[in-house]
Amino acid sequence: DPLMQQQAAAAAAASHHRHPQQPVGAEASSSAAAAEAIWDARLTAGSVDEMDEEFRERIKKAAEAAGAGSSQVQVSTPATPAAPSTSSSAPSTSSSTSSSAPGDKNATVPWGDFLKSPPVWAVTVAHFCFNWGYYTLLAWLPSYFEMALDLNVQESSFLTLIPYVAMIAMTPVVGPVADGMVKRGVPLTTVRKIAQGLAFVVPAACMLACAKLTPAAGMPANVPVLVVLLSLGFAFGGWSRAGLYCNHQDLSPKYASALLGITNTAGAIPGVLGVTSAGYLLDATSSWQLALFFPTAACQILGAIFYTIFASSERQHWS
């Protein structure tokens, strides 16, 4: 085809005009490697169309015909065909990006697969149960110290901070310990279940102990012991950072943000339901045990059982 030969010759001449000195030695090798890397990146991003390949083939043939060989124009033929461009005019540039998988710009989030996945439900239930205790105690502890333990506002405000400081102190310890277990060969799923089990079972035991030690109206309270129990429960709640809060990334790095959105929505419900129900139960029974501690312990035990049975850190098939 005379027209194709003219186009190829013009392209080769333009390339020679832009780069009058041909790279040699190490410079030629690095130049070829850079060109190859850019080409591979464009293939991965799906930004190469048929026109690009045809143009490269023309230049390669023209260079070989001219006797320049591979030292003048370094090109390589891709092992797999590039995805066709949606544009019918100019080829895409290397700055093109894809919103999902390479070459798949119309991929949708598999919501239906999420709902059918037991490990996703395990994280969702665990998030709900963990936040029930967290939000309910966050809202009601100041009132508990003031009304049940007969402390003034200043004392109750100060003592309310101690359990949360204990959680903050525990959190930096959780990650290295969990990582150490994984390095020693403990399966990641087992590490997740141990961590979340500690975040549920120990606080549940502390809630039951607080229910037992909460005095009746007008009776003296052992305030230091109650504060220690609450602080211990909150501190071990920090182990959830190596449990449910890491599990989304285990199941699917690609859809971890969507999974966190689902479980965090479930985890926000106790902020309304748990806090409100505690108030209704307290008005109806005048019992801190029935309004605060028993429901919290029940949620934590339920979460521990459900998570232990259904949780997994294996990459899911829909990821």
Low-confidence parts: 16-34, 47-51, 68-103
For the termini, the CA-CA separation is 48 Å
Structural class estimated from helices and strands: mainly alpha
Q: Kindly provide the radius of gyration, computed on alpha-carbon positions and rounded to a whole number of angstroms.
A: 32 Å
User: What is the strand content?
Assistant: under 5%
Helix proportion range: 55-70%
What's the SSE pattern? HHHHHHHHHHH
Largest sheet: none
Number of beta strands = 0
Overall 3D form: elongated
Q: Average pLDDT, to the nearest integer?
A: 79
Total of DSSP H or I helical runs spanning 4+ residues: 11
Description:
This protein is mostly helical. It contains 11 helices and no strands. It is elongated.
Give the key terms.
single chain, 319 residues, mainly alpha, 11 helices, 0% strand
Q: What is the gist of this entry?
A:
Helices cover 70% and strands 0% of the residues.
Write the layout of secondary structure elements.
Blueprint: H1 2-18, H2 25-45, H3 50-65, H4 111-115, H5 118-148, H6 153-183, H7 188-213, H8 223-237, H9 244-251, H10 256-285, H11 288-310
